[in-house]
Amino acid sequence: MEIERKYLLSTLPPAELLGPGVEIQQGYVDAGDPEIRVRRLGAHFFLTIKSGDGVRRQEYEVRIPRPTFDKLWPLTQGARLEKTRYTVQDGDDRWEIDAFAGPLEGLYLAEIELPSDFRPVRAPAFLTVVREVTSEPAYKNKSLATRGQPSA
Amino acid sequence: MEIERKYLLSTLPPAELLGPGVEIQQGYVDAGDPEIRVRRLGAHFFLTIKSGDGVRRQEYEVRIPRPTFDKLWPLTQGARLEKTRYTVQDGDDRWEIDAFAGPLEGLYLAEIELPSDFRPVRAPAFLTVVREVTSEPAYKNKSLATRGQPSA
């Protein structure tokens, strides 16, 4: 089991740290339970179904061909987001930094996955952390896609 | 692991054996791999994803709410079928008998699932078996939905 921690950033780290990044488009055919999500990750397409909650949470993901993505995408209207994901290695830590686009432009989030044997996280100096938002529902991708930019 | 055997019937067994049956509508958002199927079974709605082949075949099914079914259903145009499923118990054997509707009207199939320790199947007298079609691709649901009535 992994623990995810998420941080709101005020700016993107310097370009030379970030590398090229990968474009992500994702949308929800259903943002309820089960959640039905389609996603483009660069040139790859995925369908993901998540159901249940907490320890009963189940996730199933399959690669889909582009025509199937194109068929499903129109069903996600009003529940979409776009971002570029950068991966930055900091010692043993692998940070994922998302720079949102479209209506969410100007929003930057950094995420790290930790093994369940908890240890303190130290955000590296290159991250301009505003605050930790791990437990704020407004910063979940699904909420960002359906409700837009958080007011804070 | 279960073995399925499927038989083509010339007629439906007498109504008094069949009971009420349940209406099934199913359609394929994608009839390829992964296969993405939506299904109405009476008042219940399901999304099923099947991927891979043979022993690597994976199947994932979730209940979905009706509005999600209604959203996905239009994507199945040209790859749908409708049938009424009757379940008939014959000793230890549980037969599922499908009476197809729409363009497939007049087609009747009986299916039985057997445990993997193979034993011979004896079709009960109330089944008017034309022949076994277990290994005929034309009688798979996906093929019936996309290609219609088999010519034989």
SSE blueprint:
Two copies of one chain form a homodimer.
Chain A (H helix, E strand, L loop, with lengths): L1 E8 L5 H4 L3 E9 L4 E7 L2 E8 L6 E6 L2 H7 L7 E11 L2 E8 L7 E8 L13 E4 L8 H7 L5
Antiparallel strand pairs in A: 1-8, 1-9, 2-3, 2-6, 3-4, 4-5, 6-7, 7-8
Report on this structure.
2 copies of one chain form a homodimer. Chain A is mainly beta and 152 residues long. The first copy, chain A, contains 3 helices and 9 strands. In chain A, strand 4 and strand 5 form a beta hairpin. The first copy, chain A, is globular. The A-B interface holds A 29-30, 32, 34, 36, 47, 49, 51, 60, 62-65, 68, 71-72, 75 and B 29-30, 32, 34, 36, 47, 49, 51, 60, 62-65, 68, 71-72, 75.
Ranges of chain A where pLDDT stays below 50 over 5 or more residues in a row are none
How would you describe the oligomerization state of the chains in this entry? homodimer
Mean pLDDT across all amino acids of chain A: 93
**Biggest sheet: strand arrangement of chain A:** 5-4-3-2-6-7-8-1-9
Q: Biggest sheet of chain A: strands, sense, closure?
A: 9 strands, antiparallel
Judging from the principal axes of the Cα atoms, what is the shape of chain A? globular
Beta-strand residue percentage of chain A: over 45%
| Distance N to C terminus of chain A | 31 Å
Helical stretch tally of chain A: 3
Structural class category of chain A: mainly beta
Biggest interface, CB < 8 A:
A-B, 17 and 17 residues
Number of strands of chain A: 9
Please compute the radius of gyration of chain A using only Cα atoms: 16 Å
